[in-house]
């Protein structure tokens, strides 16, 4: 309208819009803000608004669209589709049958088994015992092994005989990758060990595959953060039995509750552990100042100073004001561990009992609970407590309280009352002594009975200092959903064992992150990687070039149908493959022996044991070993002159080209895998 104002001002007109709400814009009685400014600017026009649906408003709607240029296409131009077979999911098509065959022949166990199957004869058991337990397990499955298209399979058949299929004999170097593909990726879902076993059993076989599956699931960090123990962990119960009144007092807060006419919303509950005497005070808020004032005015001024005060870790109980009052009165302050209210069980149970009684006494609006508190406390104090065998009123005052029903019946005859006050006080003192002693016995029996029941489902295990654990945190940050959260945090390290069930833990060796927690919130942490495999052969991690593939093909042809060229020594009889153990030990002590390493020639400054092992090194590892990544790049670029050719002789020296200075050789890839 402002754009065409020179044509519209002074003439009545009709404005059509698909925005129906504009029809009422001039009907506001008291417009404010932006709407008032709109009405002011439109007041100079004489118009009426007519609503038109969007389907009939195309003439204006189309013009309002943002213009977009269309790219001109050359006439007669045809786009040719690619004829290549690109892999859309390379992780699903990682191993071809040819590559799996190469990996199987590189595995010393499977390579021997292929020779057995081709010969159609199982070797004697005496020859297998010295090759290690894993080789023995594969030997025991000889009748179930078969070769299909050059791959070794195991024929699986269940007990009923209705499930029969082939399992690929998986080389040791591929086990970890298979477990990650069947458990860790999103499509695997991080399922449990039993489901993962079924997935593996349908496809693969290797020695000790079930224990490897269980260990992989057990060591998965994501699963550990989400899954709790199958049985809720419990530490053994620790008893803390007081021996006299006011030795130990517990305190807690109930609320918020409906606001009463007096402005109260919370209940401060205080209970004596020995007599079970409770007090409950209605308070408007749970500020530390209000709580400290109630505790001093209502409890300490009436019953005296307690020896120990036990609370949870609420900020009001840990404030500077509250701590100052505790220090002035000489009270020992103790507290529960985080998220473990069971360590203050008496007051927590009193809270439940008090809420149960109040719920039956309040009105429909539930706003008179503060007036019902005295009656609820009278009912609790006048009844016998199961653990002590006496009522809290009797243990506190030495006599039973009189309740309204006692007024309906005649008072029974009383025992002879002492004539003097001193005699009555002496009699009352002796009564307290007998009562308190009996109370200690009853409380001890009750506590031990409950401890036996609790410990029957507990584990008498402890954590050692330095051990890794997970911590259960039953809350989530704002904006996250509790049902989709992973409540186990960590891993943490045990720093100190405070008691049998209380530990101090820290994360990342940071003292600021130290926490004091209960045993029930901890579970052991199992770290990855997968457990070491004793007979794992040296190998490369990937097929990197055609040159390395062709070299391994030649080795496969020499190995196919027979045992490896380098035979184990005949001084066996042990349960492990001595040749493999010596080979691993040699690789850890030195790098590739046929070339100069770190400027030193082979054979210099080496122990006699290592020099003896070098002399027995297989020829194919001295001459035709896999190339390093730098050598492969140079060879692909055609710059063969940059590679140093080995000089004939047993020194194993290498000579650099004259135009380039000598350089230090990199360690081969197969050696870096075992460092």
Automatic annotation (TrEMBL):
<feature type="domain" description="Integrase catalytic">
    <location>
        <begin position="241"/>
        <end position="400"/>
    </location>
</feature>
<keyword id="KW-0695">RNA-directed DNA polymerase</keyword>
<dbReference type="InterPro" id="IPR036397">
    <property type="entry name" value="RNaseH_sf"/>
</dbReference>
<keyword id="KW-0378">Hydrolase</keyword>
<feature type="region of interest" description="Disordered">
    <location>
        <begin position="614"/>
        <end position="675"/>
    </location>
</feature>
<dbReference type="GO" id="GO:0003964">
    <property type="term" value="F:RNA-directed DNA polymerase activity"/>
</dbReference>
<dbReference type="Pfam" id="PF22938">
    <property type="entry name" value="Integrase_p58_C"/>
</dbReference>
<dbReference type="Pfam" id="PF17921">
    <property type="entry name" value="Integrase_H2C2"/>
</dbReference>
<keyword id="KW-0540">Nuclease</keyword>
<dbReference type="InterPro" id="IPR041588">
    <property type="entry name" value="Integrase_H2C2"/>
</dbReference>
<protein>
    <submittedName>
        <fullName>Retrovirus-related Pol poly from transposon</fullName>
    </submittedName>
</protein>
<dbReference type="GO" id="GO:0016787">
    <property type="term" value="F:hydrolase activity"/>
</dbReference>
<dbReference type="InterPro" id="IPR012337">
    <property type="entry name" value="RNaseH-like_sf"/>
</dbReference>
<keyword id="KW-0808">Transferase</keyword>
<feature type="compositionally biased region" description="Polar residues">
    <location>
        <begin position="557"/>
        <end position="573"/>
    </location>
</feature>
<dbReference type="GO" id="GO:0015074">
    <property type="term" value="P:DNA integration"/>
</dbReference>
<feature type="compositionally biased region" description="Basic and acidic residues">
    <location>
        <begin position="633"/>
        <end position="647"/>
    </location>
</feature>
<feature type="region of interest" description="Disordered">
    <location>
        <begin position="528"/>
        <end position="577"/>
    </location>
</feature>
<dbReference type="InterPro" id="IPR041373">
    <property type="entry name" value="RT_RNaseH"/>
</dbReference>
<keyword id="KW-0255">Endonuclease</keyword>
<dbReference type="GO" id="GO:0003676">
    <property type="term" value="F:nucleic acid binding"/>
</dbReference>
<feature type="compositionally biased region" description="Basic and acidic residues">
    <location>
        <begin position="543"/>
        <end position="556"/>
    </location>
</feature>
<dbReference type="InterPro" id="IPR050951">
    <property type="entry name" value="Retrovirus_Pol_polyprotein"/>
</dbReference>
<dbReference type="Pfam" id="PF17917">
    <property type="entry name" value="RT_RNaseH"/>
</dbReference>
<dbReference type="InterPro" id="IPR001584">
    <property type="entry name" value="Integrase_cat-core"/>
</dbReference>
<dbReference type="InterPro" id="IPR054465">
    <property type="entry name" value="Integrase_p58-like_C"/>
</dbReference>
<dbReference type="Pfam" id="PF00665">
    <property type="entry name" value="rve"/>
</dbReference>
<keyword id="KW-0548">Nucleotidyltransferase</keyword>
<dbReference type="GO" id="GO:0004519">
    <property type="term" value="F:endonuclease activity"/>
</dbReference>
